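Quiz preparation item.
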């Protein structure tokens, strides 16, 4: 079994929910950290979700404010396990305003 630390990024997320990372086949993932950066000229509200094949989709952040020019790291020692085909998503209430950095451990 291979274990690989990886950084996945998604720039300029806006009002349309976007996939930040889709877990590949035959892989499980431990999310170690999620960092969100407001790149807009004003405050924004953001969301992070997990989409699952079982249709049991959840939000892990919803409408959380990030002030202008600020960064939010909200995992703070917690871990989230994602399974094959799970998708981590992000959205903002402002077009092209959110950069996402996802630190993970992939296990294949």
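Solution:
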């Amino acid at each position: 079994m291979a274990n690989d630390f990886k950084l996945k990024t998604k720039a300029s997320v806006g009002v349309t929910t976007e996939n930040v990372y889709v877990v590949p086949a035959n892989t499980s993932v431990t999310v170690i950290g999620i960092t969100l950066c407001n790149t807009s000229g004003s405050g924004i509200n953001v969301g992070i979700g997990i989409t699952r094949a079982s249709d049991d989709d959840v939000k892990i952040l919803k409408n959380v404010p990030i002030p202008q020019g600020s960064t939010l790291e909200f995992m703070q020692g917690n871990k989230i396990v994602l399974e094959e085909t799970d998708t981590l998503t992000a959205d903002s209430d402002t077009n092209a305003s959110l950069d996402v950095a996802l630190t993970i451990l992939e296990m294949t």
